[in-house]
């Protein structure tokens, strides 16, 4: 009876070893599949794709900046040199058209959701306001000169009345 007891114990040991070994192999296989095969580069590829897309957007912005900087400088020179007292509506229309082109950059579908392109809208608004202020200042100066001339005429009329 002792012999059969040790045989069954040895059988149980082998069966237990087979169960543990099969459980270990199955667990190792599942873990290996999850780590190396199933969506293996998902996390790394997304980070890489995000970085590449951000880099591409930065390059697009830099290209737009370099492309439109000359036009912005030309607008700046035009706004600084324009004389609002001269009635040259074609110059003002051309200048407003160029300012509109700069403003349009931030409204394009490709650039609509990129906050960096809003700088073009702000620059265009700045030059619109600068042109408007220049025209308004010129109109105010004309009015002041007209009022001074009217005041001088009035003083002259009062002086002639006093003399008579």
Which key phrases capture this entry?
2 domains, 164 residues
Give a written overview of the molecule.
With 164 residues, the chain is mostly helical. It folds into 2 domains: 1-41; 49-163, no CATH class. The protein has 4 helices and no strands. It has helices at 2-37, 42-81, 89-107, 118-163. The longest helix is centred in the C-terminal third of the chain and has 46 residues, at 118-163. The model has no long low-confidence stretch (mean pLDDT 83).
Helix/strand structural class: mainly alpha
| Residue windows where pLDDT falls under 50 for at least 5 positions | none
Number of helices: 4
N-to-C span:
158 Å
Oligomer: single chain
Summed over residues and divided by their number, the pLDDT gives a mean of 83
What is the count of distinct domains?
2
From the alpha carbons, calculate the radius of gyration and give it in angstroms. Answer: 41 Å
Large-scale geometry: rod-shaped
